[in-house]
Structure formats: structure tokens, C-alpha cells
Specification:
The chain is α/β, with parallel strands linked by helices. The protein has helices at about 5-10, 40-45, 75-95, 110-115, 145-155, 180-190, 205-210, 215-220, 235-245, 255-260, 315-325, 345-350, 350-360, 380-385, 390-395, 445-455; strands at about 15, 25, 30, 55-60, 95, 125, 140-145, 155-160, 165-170, 200-205, 230, 275-280, 285-290, 295-300, 340-345, 370-375, 420-425, 440-445.
Amino acid sequence: MGKTLFDKIWDAHVVAQVNDGPTQLYIDRHFCHEVTSPQAFNGLRERGLKVLRPDKTTATPDHNVPTWDQDKPIQDAISRHQVQTLTKNCEEFGITLYGLGHEKNGIVHVVGPENGLTQPGMTIVCGDSHTSTHGAFGSIAFGIGTSEVEMVLASQCILQPRPKTMLITIDGTLSKGVSSKDIILYIISKLTTGGGTGYFVEFAGSAITSLSMEARMSLCNMSIEMGARGGFIAPDQTTFDYINGREFAPKGEAWDKALAYWKTLKTDADAQFDKTYTFDAADIEPMITYGTNPGMGVGITGSIPTLNEIDEAGKISYIKSLEYMGYNPGEKMIGKPVDYVFVGSCTNGRIEDFRAFADFVKGKKKADNVVVWLVPGSRLVEKQIKAEGIDKVLESAGFVLRQPGCSACLAMNDDKVPAGKYSVSTSNRNFEGRQGPGSRTLLASVLTAAAAAVTGVVTDPREFLS
């Protein structure tokens, strides 16, 4: 019997197998940020250990950084302390740091791919759940806890139970105005936030292979929102073209050798998955969430489910969710008021996202009732935005570009949505208070966010597309 792509990569990285226990897995690339690493470094100090392979770890602050005045000291004391602690730890243990103001600084899951650190066939970890983003390159990438961060720093290995495998195939052609963000929100709405628990998911099919690398990253980024350990896509020519020429990509003969290996990274025709699903791309329209988890999503022209459509066991939590959001069962989402729009995060903070937003708002004006935060995922993305004149398009439409960081994805910095306000967000989570205490988050694609930004209400972006 053939092997899945997951099996091939996993098996190639097994150091040892604990009897009736987890696998000791070698890790090729470790990414690090300021939130989950301090205790890990303290653990090394307490045990008198060094970082075994400092060249395999790359660090950058992202969660706690402000998106204004990054050339000045961070005002929030807790955020300032965390960022300063990361700097000190990296200096002490010899780890490469792209600190605040560094030309390579940004959200860790944006920085890795755009610099060529993320490559096919790798095992990649970070003390951050959305490490699954890197799976877009055909790598096994997953988030880990702080104790596991310490384990990787000390040994370049990790103990992990082997996940089951799932194949999700999306065939057909995506309709105009439908993006990979809509694909993943659609999948989660069908499988729920627990549908992938215990699995590593391979995404395949003609609709998937037609996606750009940046779109694939958005898709894999949110694979964990359905409970999966991670998600990935087999590398192809699109992958190779994206990596080629980036700073840390192989060069010369090393490139030829790497490329030859990468081309073998695909699931065998006779491989068996533990579970499979198939969806038709034609069934997917722009999506938006109405509740307090990413699975509570609906097509933009659809309605919030009625109580009759909800399982008896879930009705209490469903009602509680709608009460928090201020919505009622059966209501349409189109026309719902919007107070904030956020474009950014490790889900949708790349140059392609800002090109799409700028193309949509060109010749239009920001709605007066909406506060809009446009936050590049990295300094490189910010540089590209300015080089391409995207910032000028945004300015003429009444928008202001902020500086890179995780920003309003989560309430760990100054960019917080006020209590009771509605935010159409291109980030990945809509839990209660995720964007600020009492805030209400509607997850959507960049185009749906752009439509809300210019109309001031939830709007089907296809109304503006010729």
C-alpha cells in the first residue's frame, strides 16, 4: 500500500518511537515569538542547558507590538517587557532575532515563508497555534506549548503522538469573488470546529491547486479552527516558483537537489486516509460568521440558522452565542451594521491581500461610520505596499496604513475593538472578546471586508465586481 504525503514526511523525521507512546520527531525549523517563549528559556537556564541548534530557530516579536510609532518605546508595560525579554533571550542563547524595526520583522507566519525559511518536506513548529500556515508549502507544521518550545530548544526534537490522516478535496472552479478564506470558512461550517480533531489534513483538488501560495497559506492557517492538528498542500510548480530566489532558499546545485526531492512529495495513488471529504467549489460563496466560533458561518446571501436547524444538544450554547452577538435566528447577514474593519493577521496580512483590498476600494470612499485598520503582516509587505503605490490608492479612498504586527487579531496590543462594537475581520478567530473585551467579530475574506469598509454594513462583495 502506498503512503500519504503526511506519512512520507513524518516517517523521514522519526528519531525514535516510544513503546505504546509518542514519537520522537526531529524538527527542521523552529519559529519563536515573545509570548510563549520566556518560560522555555528560563527552563533552559534552570537546567544549565544551551540551545542545541540555534541556527534552526528564528525569532520575531509580533503579538504585543504596537502598530503606531514603532520607532519609540512600547508604552504598555507588559508588552514592552515581553518584547525586551525576547531580545535578551535571543542575545544570550545565540538565536537570530528580527526585532521591532528590523527589515525582516513581522508576524512570524508571514516572515518565515517570505524569506524562504519555510520549505517543502520540513517539520516546522512554533509556540503558536497558527503554525499550520506553513503547511501550504507541503510541510508538517503545527503549534506547540511552552514546555514543548523548551524541548525543541534543548534537543531539536519533540515528543508527539502520531495524528490520523484526513483528505479534503475541493474540485471545480471557484466563483468570482470567492477566495481561499471562503473555502476554509465553508469547510469549517460543514465539519464544525471539532470535525478535524485528531487529524492532519491534506487539502487537494483542482480548486486547491489553482490557488496562489498566499491563498494556500490562508487556507492552511485556519485548518486548526476545525480542530485539526494541522493542514497542508502537496508542493507543486506554484510552490517552487514562490520559493525560488528568496534569501534562505537553496541556491545553485543545492536548489537542484532540493527541487528533485520536493517533486517526490506527493501522496501515492493507492494511499489510504483515515477519513475523506469532497466538496464542490461551485457551492461556495463569500462566507461570513455570525456567532462566537469559526464554525458558525454562513454564505453571505444566507441567513442565520433557525433553532429548528440546530441539534438539541447545541441549542443552549447557540442561543448564548447569538445573545452575545446581538443577533436572532433566521436573520439575514446582509445589511448588518459594521463599526470596525480589520485587514491583516497571519491569515490575511500578505501583499496579495492588500492588492485585492486596494483594487476593490480604488475609486471609492471609506464609509464614515467605520474605523478601518489595515495592518501589513511584515516590514517586507509594508515595503511592497509602498513600492507598488498601494498606499496612495488607500489614502485617496480615505484609508490609513498602519505598521506591521498581529494587531487586532487578538487583544494583546493597543488595537482593541471596543465592547459591543461589530468588527468584520480577516483574522482567524471570533471567540467572545477575541478582539477586545465585549467585542463582536465577524470573520470574512479580504473582499468582504473591503465591501463592508466602503458601505458601512455587511455587503456581498460580488455586487461591486464586474
